[in-house]
Task: inverse folding
């Protein structure tokens, strides 16, 4: 097995985020599930877009955010995800290239437009997402470049990819190829409702196919259907080579075999928007591991990136994560 | 080795607490170290007693509180500690007998009076203690009943016992006797300043003589002279059979070999006074272990007792811990 030429290849939904400040009343009147990502259709996306204003458009998507974060840390990242050949597709491509991520997935020329996610940020800094998957449903196994997968130390998959049916095949193809090349497979559970939608599949993935699992407290408890965090912690220890469990203001817990580390949360002056916190954490931890750091230090890097992420609006940062880590860790 | 007839024998300073509400200004003007236990002499104790008012007197002392808590849970506990043959000594004896603890240490008839600790509770619920050790300095190896030690599943020692010189000998005699009888030895580090006063000794104790170690976050970090909690956690894992690390509102972490459990803090409606929280936690955990519970459940019992303790003024509770645990754990 040769040395990998890519640190992390991320496969996920290629989405343009539309950020909107919203109050709780709007969520209630629209019947939205606060804190969750809900899938909507094109008409509903259009209606919501017209109903809200002051929107900021930016390149998003969970795995794409993580790869962008990895690039900001100085890691070498590739993203695979499907956009349409339209204006939003261009926004996505330009943004992700600008941050130094390799992104070559062919856009669709027919079918639905580029995916968008209305991210409604409430005054408590929580985000509620209404996502129109658009062109993402056209990602399929043919978009997976087996040589690229074999060249990457870690293949990172977002749980949301389990929503569009053809993408699931791409997901499994990539995971198999990574393992055949002696590489690692990482999965983020994405959100508790996503875990609920695909419960049996995710349990099977965690137990048999994933080396590095990312989950927040609610997601891991949903996965193992347990009432307290510690029970989930004990369950996951026997399943994954590495599990990184994020707990918001309680920091994170990272486990690997006999290793169990408790990583306190970084101090955050003003909590603005939690969008992308998990993605930024994954970026930091994966960067740490692929740059040869120990697990605890890698998780600390994850925590520092997450703290930066939640201090401003939107999932991506203007700050160089690399400079930030050098400042914090020396 | 026969079955133990006593769950826990606690050896510590026999102290009557004098609880006083105080503001931060008083602490500053008196040059007191907030949150710490400071040793004072008889004159200073008298002066402080006269300066403050509205005092509540109650039986206290760290290990004594723990054994009282154990009895309240339905465990069988013995306390060993020295009072003088005076009114405060009677207060101590009556209180500890009333809760069902065996206590037969002979009182002194000459020398200093019974120990008192002025516990100054500030509006932030923190306690600052000014302790006059009094008769406690006369506890010695002759007060240790070797048969009783051999009859107890766990011999529990408070770190504060390291302050009066003769008590230290009693401490070591008891620990040796417990191990010779095939029993366990447990130590609570008491407070970070106490750890600082006896740093080398405590490190040696933790590494070589203690099976079950109790420490809060600050104490364990002081013991291992590290900057973050996780480093202390990793260090203690290799030293003690069981370590229980309390973290205030972050709950506790309990470790034993490969086992690592994260125990979230119980919800506390109103934080009144943290005096005795660590003692109550130790009571719950030791009760859990001696009644055959697993480590996680034992730590949860500790957390429930600690939460009850900090919801009222003073280290001891009027509530039956036993009823509380039955209500919470079923």
Result:
């Amino acid at each position: 097995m040769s040395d990998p030429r890519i640190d992390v290849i991320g496969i996920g939904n290629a989405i343009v985020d539309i950020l909107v400040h919203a109050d709780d009343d709007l969520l209630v009147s629209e019947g939205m599930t606060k804190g969750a990502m809900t899938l909507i259709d094109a008409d509903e996306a259009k209606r919501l877009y017209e109903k809200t204003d002051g929107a900021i458009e930016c390149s998003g998507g969970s795995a794409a955010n993580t790869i962008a974060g990895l690039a900001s840390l100085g890691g070498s990242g590739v993203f695979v995800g499907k956009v349409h050949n339209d204006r939003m597709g261009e926004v996505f491509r330009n943004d992700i290239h600008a941050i130094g991520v390799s992104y070559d997935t062919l856009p669709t020329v027919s079918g639905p437009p580029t995916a968008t996610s209305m991210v409604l940020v409430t005054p408590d800094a929580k985000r509620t997402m209404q996502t129109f998957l658009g062109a993402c449903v056209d990602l399929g196994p043919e978009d997976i470049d087996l040589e690229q997968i074999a060249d990457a130390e870690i293949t990172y998959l977002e749980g949301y990819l389990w929503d569009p049916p053809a993408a699931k095949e791409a997901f499994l193809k990539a995971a198999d190829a990574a393992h055949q090349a002696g590489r690692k497979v990482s999965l983020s559970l994405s959100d508790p409702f996503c875990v609920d939608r695909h419960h049996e599949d995710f349990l099977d993935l965690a137990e048999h196919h994933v080396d590095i699992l990312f989950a927040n407290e609610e997601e891991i408890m949903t996965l193992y259907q347990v009432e307290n965090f510690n029970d989930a912690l004990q369950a996951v220890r026997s399943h994954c080579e590495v599990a990184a469990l994020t707990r918001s203001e309680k920091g994170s817990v990272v486990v690997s075999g006999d290793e169990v580390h408790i990583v306190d949360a970084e101090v955050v002056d003003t909590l603005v928007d939690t969008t992308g916190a998990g993605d930024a954490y994954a970026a930091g931890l994966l960067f740490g591991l692929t740059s040869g750091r120990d697990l605890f230090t890698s998780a600390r890097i994850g925590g520092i990136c997450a703290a930066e992420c939640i201090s401003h609006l939107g999932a991506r940062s203007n700050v160089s994560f690399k400079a930030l880590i050098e400042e914090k860790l020396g």
Chain B touches chain A at residues 228-230, 233-234, 250, 253, 255, 258, 260-264, 296 (CB under 8 Å).
